Amino acid sequence: MRQIWHFQRDLHIVLHDIAETTNPDHLATELSDPSHLLLLKNRLTTFETGQLVRMLVAKNGSDKKMSYRDLNLNTQMLDLARRFEEASNRLHAEQEHRMRLEERLFRAQRLETLGRLAEGVAHYFNNHLTVTQGHLSIALSARDGSPRLLSSLDEVLNSSKEAAEVTSQLLKFNHQQPGPASPVNLEQCINSEAVLMKHVLGAQIGVEAWFESSLPDVMADSANLGQIILTLAVHARDAMPTGGRLSIRAHRVQVGDEVAARRLHAEARPGEFVVLAIGDTSQGLTSAEVAALFDRSGNQSSELGQAAGLLPVQGLVRQLHGWMDIKSITDVGTEFQIYLPAAQSYGPATATPVKSRPEAEEQSATILIVDDEDSVRQVMEYVLTSQGHNVLVARDANEAWQLWRSRKAVIKLAIVDVQLPGGASGFDLEKALNEEDPSLPVIFTCGFAAANLKHTKQLVNGENFLPKPFGMPELLTVVGNALLKPARL
Questions:
Q1: What class has domain 121-182+353-489?
Q2: Fold topology of 186-341
Q3: Model pLDDT, residue 442
């Protein structure tokens, strides 16, 4: 029986007609009392033996079916457990991804809120800087005072212009829609950003700049270009928490053909370009951190720190029809190389000097000024009346319309703020005025940059748009140019 059970442990064995002299307990003990051993002391008939065998066979079949069913159930349970674990892992991953997306959305909304706040603050300061620059220009033009006083007033005027430059950069930084590409002098653009960059970087980071001589202009939108420069400067500052050096270099490069372009960069193309290189002396970036810079999935690890989140910069560069390359060496630093298409005219753009008056003296005229800021209206009225003009003032479109209906025969020019109270904007007022007199010149003023004003009307600085803040020379120049146009029929 031991040998039989060695090969088939589940075999039922029946011992019957055991002699009384046989000790069944001893036999059971010797065989370890298996559950499939049946000891019977009485002789069985053939029928009883057959019934017993059939019963044991049936029981064995039932046990096997039960075992198979249990095995099948266990297999199903394991499969369900595996599927549940996969679903749980997938749900956990989706929750983590959703949390990352929500975090990115929250940061984007917070940046948008800060941008709108910056716009409002810039508009507020531009109104007051207009008043400050206007009165300072008046005081300096009168030359009434000691040289020391006039020198102090000139310093205050320069300081207010520097503050106006900072507000202008705030408005450019919040500029979202790309404007039309135009020739931009890269050196002048960086110098204009230097005022805000100096405050952003802090005193612990030095700035070095070098520009190739006779550097051609680049075809770009100045607002987006300024945002690229400032964002990369902030990234460099965060990469150098203990201080360091920020280098800004610019030089031209000629990409001869498609072969040379493919060797240079995947997005490169033949032509002449200006390379703007912004580098830092940080610890450098690993290959994983470089890849995370332009990760669109939002799966950047928090361990990457400041190495994440430059995907918008890449988008802005592509909007300017350029491309960006990255060079990073561990313990040496990182350099971002921005390739921008060169403009057709080579050489730096020369700034046109601002004239206090047009070359031809304009005759006195009646001018309508519409602005909701009392101090702005007063300084504009003072400057224009001092030049012999007659000035009508209104604080909103309704007052301006009433003045126009009663004095439209003598009004030769309208200076209108874009943002007016009462539900009607400066654009609405200009449309109503032009319906009655299409030849009436209208000059718009606003504390926002022209690119930030979501309107289809084309605004040109110095022609039909006078951005705040402005001084007396700028005001007289744009007014004189408007009045020197052919007179209305």
A1: alpha beta
A2: Heat Shock Protein 90 (3.30.565)
A3: 92
